[in-house]
Amino acid sequence: MFGWEFPPHITGGLGTACYGLTKGLAKQQVQVIFVVPKAWGDEDQSAVKLVNASDVVVDNTDSDYQEFWKKITYMEIGSNLIPYVTPEEFKKIAEEDRLEGVSLQEKVMRTKFTFSGKYGTDLLAEVSRYALVAAGIARKQQFDVIHAHDWLTYPAGIAAKKLTGKPLVVHMHATEFDRSGQNINQDVYDIERKGMEEADRVITVSNFTRNIVIEKYGIDPVKVFTVHNAIEPGEKEIGNIGKNVKEKVVTFLGRLTQQKGPEYFIEAAHLILQRDPNVRFVMAGSGDLMNKMIRRIAQLKMGTKFHFTGFLKGADVDRMFALSDVFVMPSVSEPFGLVPLEAMRSNVPVVISKQSGVSEILKHALKVDFWDINGMADAIYGLLHYKALGDIFRKYGKQEVDSLKWDNAARKVLRVYESLFN
């Protein structure tokens, strides 16, 4: 299995999904070799490193985790891949590193790997490098199926298939159309399409994404299977956290990018404040729209009602939900969307866009079109002000997400694997 992030070193939902899925597969007696780029730390490494479970999971004494790690071989290879950035953004980050006197080539490349082609500020060259090394790893391992997560690892999956002859499954967690709208990066699109064409099976995280894969990429529907994501059960209780404000709190948690629709959240907030000034809004996340969002809030004179927390993860996310009265996900194009499940698990009612994969499986969530700021404002206002409505969505929402288990998703993925040999 090729991925590019894994807890606790995550920057978004993909690493969380990979962890949940591999944990579920381990319970199905599937042995997984998980290969990731080494995107953190600056120590000298060999091309292949076996990482102790305690380096990756906080509570490795838990018996469930011990069973899990018996079935997972976790490997890292030297790479500078950065999740959730475009090739253009990667070049900018790499250039900043160069100006600060940090040589990416010196830091990552060492003398261990040689291959033709330029290495440096080019994300696509880095993807090729990952594919080269990852395929070499595959050649030395015993396995039945290759499983590649998202476009950065598709070339690695293709290379491993060509070297070993083993069947390839690619997992589409987000398409270039989700990330960039209609202004797609053609190189990324081409890698996605090539990966899905070369694959023996394609897994999409929703029917919403499955339709994009078939219609925008021309992939044969017969080999495209939907397996909805799930969530780890909420076992930890967050104690009483004083929010130190009398107002209700409405939270947006996600990357501040075009895909996530933060501007619609702001416009809906403006409508709500005209009806009830006793509401505060939190934007938890970072991204390229941050400055634009701050300017818009200033224009609307809502600065005293908005809080920017920056990127949150782990316990900070749990604490944020403990302070929240309503969670909103106004995504323009969301292949799935794990965060609403995390909110509901924490007894927070949610408003989500109809343009999301998670809306296909949730019953106890209020759903609106991302562009319908009046509908969004009404939904948020209703959950804030009508106690019976909020109570219903809190109670049944929690029950609903507790039934969405990774074990079920893993069983469906296993059936996809088995279909390769029938």
Structure overview:
- With 422 residues, this protein is of the alpha/beta class.
- The chain has two domains: 13-230 and 406-419, Rossmann fold (3-Layer(aba) Sandwich), CATH 3.40.50.2000; 248-402, Glycogen Phosphorylase B (Rossmann fold, 3-Layer(aba) Sandwich).
- It has 17 helices and 13 strands.
- A six-stranded parallel beta sheet has the order 10-9-8-11-12-13, sandwiched between helices. A four-stranded parallel beta sheet has the order 4-5-6-7, with helices on both faces.
- Strand 11, helix 14 (339-345) and strand 12 (350-353) form a beta-alpha-beta unit.
- Helix 1 crosses helix 3 (63-71) and helix 14 (339-345) crosses helix 16.
- The longest helix is centred in the first third of the chain and has 18 residues, at 123-140.
- Mean pLDDT is 81; it is low at 39-61 and 101-120.
